[in-house]
Every structure is written in C-alpha cells, then in structure tokens.
Specification:
single chain; about 400 residues; alpha+beta; 13 strands
C-alpha cells in the first residue's frame, strides 16, 4: 500500500470526507519539542478517529510534497511557529487543502490557543462549515522507512535460499547424493572430451601449418587492366564517366604497342588498386584526328594543327570526363619547360621518321622510344597532388572526327 493511500484515502463525498492534518518540520533538535507536542496532541485526539489522520513530515526529505503545496503560500510561518496543512483527497489525482493560519507553536502562552483553534477548524471541516480553497495535483510521498534496493535483493535471495533448503530436506538423502554424483560425472566426462577435442584440433592445425610452410610460395603479381580507347569504349571511359574517375590514356602506334604497354603497366601498377583510376591506350594510326581535334579545341581553334604522329608516341592523357579537363604528359616536358605547342607534338617541323635510329640519337635533345615513359611516375605523383596544369574543354570530340 502506498503511503499516500494510507495517510489520506480517497473520499469524494463532502459530508464523509477524510482529513489529514500535517505538521511541516525539519529533522533538527530545534523542532523536537514541536514534534513531541504534536504527538501528544494526536494521542489525545478522540473525535472522529476514523476520518482524521495526524502526521508530521520532514521538509528536507519530502521536497516534492513541499513544492506541490507551496502555491498556497506559507501561512503562519514565523520563528518558533511551524506550518500546518489540512488535506482532503477528493479523487485519485488531486488533493484539496488549507493552511492553518495560526501555525503550530511550542510556546506556553500560545500553545493552548493554537491547539483549540486547530481542533475547531478540523471540526468545522468535518461538518462542512468551512471549505478547502486550495487544490493541487497529488504530490509524491517518499516512504522513508522503505528498504533500499540492495536490502530488498538480499532479503529476496535469503528467501529463495531458505525455500531451496527446505525443498532439499523433503527429498531422501541418498537420492540427493546420487543426483549430485551423477551431475559431477556428466560434467567431468564432458570436460575430458572437450580437452581431448582441443588437443586433437591443435595437433591437426600444427600439421597443416607445417605442410603449408613446406609448400613453396608463389609470388602474386598484380594484373593491371588496360583497355583500348576506341568507339565502343569511348562513352563509358570519357564522355559518361562517373564523378571522380580519371582515365589515363597512353598514345601509341601499332609498332610501339608491345614495348610501351609493358613499361606503362609497370609504372601504373601502384595506382591500379585505386577505384578512381582507369587505364587505357589509344592507337594513333586510327584516332589521330580525335587527338588533333582535342588539341585544337584546347587552343580555341585558333590554329590548324599539322601533327607529327612520331612526336605523339608516349604521350599520356589524364582525362576527367565528368569535369571536362585533362592533363598531358610528354617526355620533353619532364626534361625542360617548353611552350604548349611543343609538348603537344605539333611545333616540330621535322619528320623523325625520315631518320634512322643512329641518326636520331645524334639529334640534340632526342629521346629514345624506350625512355619515353621514364618521367611518368613523377608526373603521376604531381597529378595526384593536383599540381599539374589542367586544360579545360567545352565538350569531348567524337571518336569519328
């Protein structure tokens, strides 16, 4: 039963209402005399004992109760005079109350007068001559004598232990002994089987590890996927590529394809694990017009270019199809700074195809085909850092142009 239900039970009928007279005090020595006198007053109460309850509470412990009644003011609160409230619980959710204005005094001069006035006020409320003007939601009362959680848990465990003890006493001692020995045997056999299984697993694992160590390991080489950039692959690799994807294109001829692709795959292998890079190659014999159109678009079509195909071998384009820009790698740009036309391969009027390899080696600044990609690794690092020049285009030319 809740404290509030016992202290002031629900009584909706005005003529049968049950009252609770509450003295507000603090747990100090200064208020001991007030509580002692109030207990004596409660013991001497002999009128309508079934309808009147007298109690006192500690304000420092029942703070929620005090706050709920604070809206009615602190009538009669002064030095050596404690507050007294008269409560009526009209329904399960609300209480109606009044303050005893004279308060509770422990002084000899005013004690008898305050006792008499309190008795008269309670009697008038019982016979419906006075009203309780203040109303508040039912405040929460804390049971100060309730056991703590740990105490309740401990008591419940003791109860369960006592029940188990008496239940065991109701069985025959030999039956209990046999059950306990059987349980020990079952657990013992299970434990032994478990240990035997673990030892067998360790033995099998050790033999398997030894066999694996004896097998020679084969070096796994990462395979770089290099696609050919042509009409069928142009849209997914360039025009309709996803955001953030970079297509790295190597420009070559059929004659130089095998040698350059091998070198190209070795250089880009560390980048092949990234999902942002796609690698491909372009046959210049078939798609040189596409490359020429791309360069002329970069120059806003201010020049008609006559490109030497030999000077374009080994060129690498890093194309961002989504954002419409590209970066260019050419072997000459990694050796010295030259104009835009120079590294794009259309400022050289000579046709190196007219020279033999020995004659080409004598030309100042000539680069052998095997060395065309020597600077690609550093160029890729600079591209990854974002320090390379980017060439913007309005659109990507068709592979048929």
């Amino acid at each position: 039963m809740k404290v509030s239900t016992w202290l002031y039970p629900v009584e909706p009928r005005r003529t049968h209402r049950k009252l609770c007279v509450v003295l507000f005090t603090r747990n100090t020595e200064a208020h001991d005399v007030h509580r002692r006198m109030f207990r004596a007053y409660a013991q001497s109460w002999d009128q309508s004992r079934d309808r009147v309850q007298l109690a006192y509470i500690y304000e420092d412990k029942q703070t929620s109760f005090i706050h709920a009644l604070a809206q009615g003011g602190e009538h009669g609160y002064r030095e050596n005079v404690l507050r007294v409230a008269i409560l009526w619980r009209r329904d399960s959710d609300n209480i109606t109350y009044n303050w005893f204005k004279a308060g509770w005094s422990a002084e000899e001069a005013s004690r008898e007068n305050s006792h008499t006035m309190l008795t008269e006020m309670v009697q008038n409320l019982l016979v419906n001559k006075e009203i309780l003007a203040l109303t508040t939601p039912l405040p929460l009362l804390i049971d100060e004598h309730a056991q703590t959680l740990l105490t309740r848990v401990w008591v419940r465990l003791l109860e369960w232990g006592d029940r188990a003890y008496h239940a065991l006493l109701s069985f025959d001692i030999w039956t209990i002994t046999t059950m306990i020995m059987s349980m020990f045997c079952i657990f013992g056999v299970g434990y032994i089987m478990r240990q035997a299984t673990l030892l067998e697993e360790e033995s099998v694992t050790g033999r398997r590890s030894q066999q694996q160590r004896n097998i020679p390991r084969r070096r796994k080489e990462a395979v770089v996927c290099i696609q050919e950039l042509r009409g069928m692959t142009y849209d997914p690799l360039v025009r309709n590529s996803s955001a953030g994807n970079i297509t790295v294109v190597l420009l070559l001829t059929e004659e130089s394809q095998d040698k350059l692709l091998q070198r190209f795959s070795e250089i880009v292998q560390p980048y092949s694990m990234s999902r942002f890079f796609t690698f491909s190659f372009l046959q210049l014999e078939q798609y040189l017009p596409w490359y020429r159109h791309l360069l002329e678009e970069t120059l806003d079509f201010k020049r008609n270019l006559d490109i030497n195909i030999r000077n374009c071998i080994g060129t690498v384009l890093a194309i961002n199809g989504y954002r419409k820009y590209y970066c260019v790698y050419h072997a000459t740009t990694m050796r010295k700074k030259e104009g835009a036309g120079s590294f794009m391969g259309f400022d050289d009027s000579s046709d190196s195809s007219d020279y033999s390899d020995e004659e080409v080696s004598k030309i100042e600044g000539a680069i052998f085909e095997a060395n065309l990609l020597d600077g690609l690794n550093n160029w890729l690092e600079r591209f990854y850092e974002g320090s390379l020049r980017r060439f913007k285009v309005e659109y990507w030319p068709s592979m048929g142009e």
